[in-house]
Protein 1
Amino acid sequence: MNLMQPFPIAVRALLRNKTRSFLTMLGVIIGVGSVISMVAVGEGAKSSVSKAFEQMGTNLLIVTSGSTRSGGFMGGMGSMPTLTWDDLDAIRSEAPSVRYAAPLMSQKTSIVGEDGNWNTQVNGTTPEYFPIRSWRVAEGSMFSASDIETNAKVVVLGQTVVSHVFGTGVDPVGKPVRIRGTPYQVIGILEKKGQSFGGTDLDDAAFVPISVFRGKLQGGLQQFITGVIFVGAGSAEETFRAQNQISSILADRHHIADRADDDFAVRNLTEIASARQQGMNTLTGLLAAIAVVSLLVGGIGIMNIMLVSVTERTREIGIRMAVGARPVHIMAQFLVEAMTLSMTGGLLGIGLGFGVSKILADNLVWAFVVRSDIVAVAFLFSAAVGVVFGLYPARKAMNLDPIEALRYE
Amino acid sequence: MKPVIRLEGVSKVYRAGETEVHALAGVDLEVGAGEFVAIMGPSGSGKSTLMNILGCLDRPTTGRYLLDGRDVTTFDRGRLAEERNRTIGFVFQGFNLLARTSALENVELPLVYSGAPRRERIRRAREALDRVGLTDRAHHAPSQLSGGQQQRVAIARALVTSPRLILADEPTGNLDTRTSIDVMALFQDLWRAGLTVLVVTHEPDVAGFAARVIATRDGRIVSDACQTARDARAAGGAP
């Protein structure tokens, strides 16, 4: 039997009922489309997360103040500053796997320029912070260690702040700004960093020397670092060792006997990243599973219509059998019809999936990731749906008695 | 000469609940090549069952059926379909053409299942339509044709595979007298050209065109007689 022989018959039968064929396909179209777009959403989120972590810098550890106990009440992590400037010095000098350590303290406050102002996160830090975050200066220069010693009133701005305070077409380097009444000189502009995985604009920030921040912006609690310490390990392999070294140094310095009572936390970004990615994988799997269910429902729709079609065309089947169609011919005809429906639906669904993924990616500012293996699997799955759900109606058609079928009104 | 049809003690029993219906009760029949046979009988005489068995649409309960020398009683559904395709051409009372399908494509249909290439299918289908005088109606759908024309398309479809045997089941049952005579004249032409034709009917007028008339009653053959076939053209418009 020629394998292509039933194909024109099937196409003709389907074109005869265009609306019905399209509605039947709709289940598969939506099924395949949602499989592709749901996986794309998951993958896009995943790649955004990993990109965000890459932007934060590799080999990165964050040391935060831990919870403190006051009268049996546990505060949240970082609720009470416990990290001191001496702790920072100890981390720098006593942990061999630590390459850089930089404090970071922030205040939300206004930056006032000649033509505009902008409320932003003003951070105090040391120059080491920037290599840890793999963040470079795009124009001008970074403040130096001597700027910290001399309490130089200088500021380095993120791109978002520049655009709000100075607008476009102005070179802000060398221009003055005021922060809480104190005049500062802009000495550098940071390169564009984009969004963090939490969705915050990383470029909406300004940086001043830590000494100036302590003097002008910190307020009370001068002996504590009211923020976090960013640590860059020597290499990715050393990150874990650095984490342990910092933990034992701080435990020692804070006189903590039982490590469960730590009043600080050393967080490894790789751990957070992989935990997040695992969460994303679970999410992707869940979305894909729901989508597969909708594809199955689409298959049942095809089976339903094929059964109706077999009944409607009983007489046609009888005529075909009378003039010499073998049971295998009849079965092939209906099976090919079901497969044509499901595979056309699959192709249209791929188109829909691409469209929806693109729209979602554009609106959610995610990467547009359509995995070609998922597209292939979704298409093959739709073909399989056609075979599986076409088989029962096709067998029913094949097993019709030609005499009964010819008599059918 | 080897007979086209040879039935040996063929019977058919249908079960309807507890009761058994003997639609055919031991039929022996031989039809030679080039014969024009009419099978007559009132309804319930078993002629339809006989027709279904002769047409390889059904199998006898007991007995043997040799079609063109092959014992088809043992054939499975697939091989029976092949016999219907190659050895037999069917003409039905209700025409049984595919709706919304052109005359040419209807005539092509048996060739689709015999695996003929498309070019050859179209050539042979056109030849068959020429033979029944419908050359200019090749692209009309059945709904655009008169009853007589539809039946002639059906006859062209029966002819297209060059079968050994044409089986017609009440071929004039849905046609008026004039058209009936045209259709029977066509069968006579085919017979004269050498085909074996077997017509089932309950109308004596129609049976009059055949050279041999077999009468059935209660599942048996009660008479089998040769006659001088009445010429359809000579019969004119008033049978």
Protein 2
Amino acid sequence: MSSPAKWEAVIGLEVHVQLHTQTKMFCGCINQYGGAANSQVCPVCLGMPGSLPVPNEEAIRKTILTGLMLGCRIAPVARFDRKNYFYPDMPKNYQISQFEDPLCAGGAVGLDPFLFPKDLQESDEAKAKRSIRLTRIHLEEDVAKSFHYEERSGIDFNRAGTPLMEIVSEADLRTPGEAFAFLGSLRQVLLSGGVSSADMEKGQMRCDVNVSVRPVGQKEFGTKVELKNLNSISGVRRALEYEIGRQIGAVEKGEAIQHETRRWDDDAGATFTMRTKEKAHDYRYFPEPDLLPVRTDQGLRKAAESGLPELPAALQARLMQENGVTAYQASVLAADRVLCGYYEKAAAGTKHKAAVANWILNDFLATQPDPATSPVRPEFFGELAGLVVEGVINSAQAKKVFAELMANPASPKAIVEKLGLAQISDVGALAAFCDEAIAANPRSVEDYRSGKSNAINALKGFVMKKSQGKANPTQVDEILKAKLSA
Amino acid sequence: MSLAHETLASLRRRLSSKEIHSRDIVKDLLTEIGTREKTVHAFTHIDEKAALAAAEKADSSLPLGGIPIALKDNLNALGDPCTCSSKILEGYKAPYDATAVARLRQAGAIFLGRTNMDEFAMGSSTENSALGITRNPWDSTRIPGGSSGGSAAAVAGRLAIAALGSDTGGSIRQPAALCGCVGLKPTYGRISRYGLVAFASSLDQIGPLTRTVEDSAILLSALAGHDPRDNTTDLRKPETFLSKPTGSVQGLRVGLPKEYFLPGMSPEAEAAVRGAAHWFEKNGATLVEVSLPHTPAAIAVYYILATAEASANLARFDGVRYGRRAVEPKDLLDLYHRSRSEGFGPEVKRRIILGTFVLSQGYADAYYRKAQKVRGLLRQDFESAFTKCDLLLTPTSPEPAFPLGERTQDPLKMYLADVFTISTNLAGNGAISLPCGFTKSNLPIGLQLIGPHFGEEKILQAAHAYEQSHDFWKRMPPV
């Protein structure tokens, strides 16, 4: 058998997202990261005998909102189920989850070309703008966190009961770059709806990956391997690159891929066997008898709809069409709603919306990466862009105004005045400077008239020097040419 | 006469008129307990000092001010033990009040004694307790019924004025019948389950065990109503039950389900129950024969669904956070295995294994899901029966109290003790058991009245009318 020329990977993701809510999923404990160990607990989230869960409406609403944003079908009646397995970080030794009737089914995540890794943004896979189908989104409770010491282990139950959404994709992804873009694009949607901060480094978004390889053109899937311990979006890419390489290497050598779970070690840059899946775990799901079915068609869905934000794709299209920003700028803005809000305020009062985007995304962000805490009022950027476009100051002067604006925030017009930077555009004044230049440089005048057009630069330089750099260079050029050809 | 012999209603009147003090009741109860508890063994724990201290502070202006109530040992009461009569909860102290307990506390009740039970409420004789057996006050060689056997024996034996129990398949009504007191299992959702250690969540319901129907109504009024901590409680407004007793059954349509009069049942029990039916007819009620055709499947359905839920509910007892923990475990698996092997008794293990099996891949369709479907049919049986009648009248138990030890080695025979009570848990209906006679050997016989969903007022009115024209409730057990 000859080995096929090309292999392709088949990748599916299971993404867990902690919801941003006031309280936990089934009790009144505060849902907050970082309290002293076991300080945010009660009989319910500790699984004490006799305690009962009560569903968190805000979490259900935010899950429905996520489903609406991603184009899912929302179940009119959803149910919770018990998923049975023993583990010390699980207080009841069953997890309240959803099995047969999840809140959301179907839907898709569109891959934003600018959310591919930087080195792939110009690639064909980024330009393909693929849409990755989702299988489902369900709501469950997070487990506690275990800590292992030399002799003993400890458990912090603060995280136990945090509302957790599980977003499951179809096996539609084909490359590590797509997986990277999927997570980034999904995160952008989650942020836009305010449903989660979705920070992988903080564990607010966690991702398990299923990956297999097959010869290009083959319909059947290869044996899949599950990857765990992926703690960043770039880590997912690195892990997949390694694992796909490992699998192709193995099958090319004629080895069989084991159906197993492998752990990604970011330092080693490799995956290692965690456990083989000889026997699938039987979770013995059954309907959670402590909770009534959730009707979403009696107000919950409506409430979620009223919270629908402008989705990233729509926002990008609007910024490009109405404000004339570039596709890249639109993507950056859509990815950060705080920054985008700042920009939209800055652009609101001016016609020069594209120029404002340049100021904010290039210059401003380089100095003050957090617009939320910036003392510089966004309107100032509209003003600054206006001064340049209208010719009040030239671009060199504008840089000076910007530096002053950052150092001592004030209206750019006031800064221009304070620094005495205003460009001289008054035709009378400029003509006087030009006359002076012509009178003082007869040689240059002669050269210009005899056809050496470059000679005009010496005259311009004279005017700029005399005007202390304030003369409007375009106008000076026009006036000189007119006078010399007269 | 010792105050221990009085009804809750009578004590309430005398307390509010300041004729007696709560401490008098507690002292009289402690005297009775002192002489007979060593025989009956109704309690797993009694804190005399705490009860006396609470009695001193009791506010007799409250609806239950100063009334001592005994609690089944599966109800959390802040700071008290809550063993579920299991070794696995040795040393556990409740970190919070069950809603039912909190409501009684709020109404002024005080707590005296935690009552014995079948371990985790799994049983019909209280012999499955890890903390010793309880004896029937009518005959100390016989079982008191179960699983709320301690509550029933305490109330019948004048060791408690009233008690709370829990009923998953008959655990309030069957011991009430066998001990000659009144046991009410309210409609599912009537009383919050928050703080009741779960056996089978979709079947469990807390209810009172009392000497009279009136006492039952008083406690139900204090306990019933929506609880934001229990998603399955009903949203209807709180009611006061039996506030105007009619004393009449005139015009009532009483259904006799033909499946509830079995050939194998005790002839004395059947005669007493038929006698009660005759009383209803004589007093203006109409008797209607009805059918609940899926009744023969009820026990099988129950032992699939109840054990399935129990297998998950009891998973939390693992030695990690509270209760009994195996000494020096080798590793995590050893900790789990030994804590649970040492902590649970044989009946609990049997049911966990059964429940795990019926939910397992490849078997769940044949057992768990099929049983759910039949449960739906049982519910329809009751709905259609209640289009023809207002209440159902049946025996509570096929026979009076059986001898200690008779069935401990034969679980299937033990399971039959609940044959007349299980269906109402599956269908969610409320039902009461009250005395309707005695056998020749002086053992009480129970009558069961089953109502439509949330039909407690109907049940209590009819039961009260029947009870007040008889004097069964006044009889004193010999032990």
